[in-house]
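Supplementary Note 3. Input sequence used for the single-chain structure prediction.
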Amino acid sequence: MAQRRLMLVFPHPDDESFGPGGTIAKYAREGAAVHYVCATRGEVGTVDAALLKPYEHLPEDQRLGALRGQELRCAADVLGLTGLHYLGYRDSGMAGSPDNQHSRAFINADPAEVVGQLVKLIRSIRPQVIVTFDPFGGYGHPDHIFIHHRTHEAFAAAGDARRYPEAGEPYQPQKLYWTIFPRGLLKFFVRVLPLFGRDPSKFGRNGDINLREITAHDYAPTTRIDVWPYYGIKQQASQCHTSQLSGGPGMFGRWPRFVQRRLNGYELFRRVEPAPDEERLKERDLFEGLQMVD
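The predicted structure, written as discrete structure tokens, is reproduced below.
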């Protein structure tokens, strides 16, 4: 078992690459065991029909999930993940969509059951550090918000022998983090996007991400990880998620290298367990200050 162990808990394929992909690549290449817990296979969304052709032998409602599962496997190999763990639920779709009502939608799962699954994984993998979404789920996706709450509950329950005794020997992780979008940068994008003919309230492949709304949820980062040496790996992993890409490098990909360094050189986190003594703790390492004991 690797001395340093990191677990990231998100709901969808691509959350790992488009989010803290540089951090994953960094720690994997430094010898840490990095595990990704993915609640769904991302079964909801629109994709180019040609991408689904290899999966035409499957029932129609399973094809997109199969495609996105293969994309995640590709990204996992590029990033260097030690383990990939599915919880087995269905993508719930964006808030207010018909997919919210599906019986297998993640947001309709029994919270205690989900927590039990996470507790079992925590006790098996024994990570010192766990990372998940902030309370708004990054950009308000119902699955992101749901996994935030269940991860917090599992973090607290994993070390309690009285809870989920069937899930293995108690184990208490030492630190819990949220991934953080840099709000200053987002506000800059909100101002700049209209100059390129883009609507900040209809961002993303499916136009269902409201950047203006995201900027209203401001969680101060406590931890900044320098991922510039691994940015190329993050880009490569992101390219695995073909079904989620709009095509081309995008307007930001054409900017000078020094601008790219400023935009993409760091990934931000907020430490919530243990709570920081100051509003802005200046950590440079998710494992900073930990006792490396099994």
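The chain has a mean pLDDT of 90. DSSP finds eleven helices and seven strands in the chain.
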